[in-house]
Amino acid sequence: QMTGRKGRVVRRPDGSVVFESRAEQGLSIDHVNLKEKERFMQGEKLVAIISEASSSGISLQADRRVKNQKRRVHMTLELPWSADRAIQQFGRTKGSNQVSAPEYVFLISELAGERRFASIVAKRLESLGALTHGDRRATESRDLSKYNFENK
């Protein structure tokens, strides 16, 4: 977890649920986020949860220089309110020295307003070409046309 939150809810083996601090001995929350990033990149943790509050400057791509080179599946629970912010977020899992291109998944409800908004973001991302340059062999993973309702 790489967020601005100071704590988290944890289920214990006995089934009880408790709120515990994210802080680790001798580390500030900012340093905890960097430590969590390191654990993910080294393969100690296989899931990274990031929020916009803490993702600035964080790179999580399947870089050739890190131990965890598994393909990234970037799931977006809530789209940002602009295509530029979306590009920045998607850039967390895409990089020039990557072993494989990430797969992008938008989790979108059937609500017409949310689907329409996703279509606007997808159309803007396609027009910028932000996710279609680089690795020519991985274009299908970056195809956002299924979210763009203004195409065939």
Automatic annotation (TrEMBL):
All copies of the Strawberry notch helicase C domain together span 2-152
> Which positions, given as ranges, span the membrane?
none
Q: Which domain of life is it from?
A: Eukaryota
Molecular function (GO) terms listed?
A: chromatin DNA binding; histone binding
Alphabetically, which GO biological process terms does the record hold? cellular response to interleukin-6; macrophage activation involved in immune response; negative regulation of DNA-templated transcription; osteoclast differentiation; positive regulation of transcription by RNA polymerase II; regulation of inflammatory response
Cross-referenced InterPro entries: SBNO_Helicase_C_dom, SNO
A GO-annotated cellular component? nucleus
> Pfam families annotated for this entry?
Helicase_C_4
The protein depicted here goes by the name SBNO2 protein
Please give the organism. Mohoua ochrocephala
Q: What is the lineage of its organism?
A: Eukaryota, Metazoa, Chordata, Craniata, Vertebrata
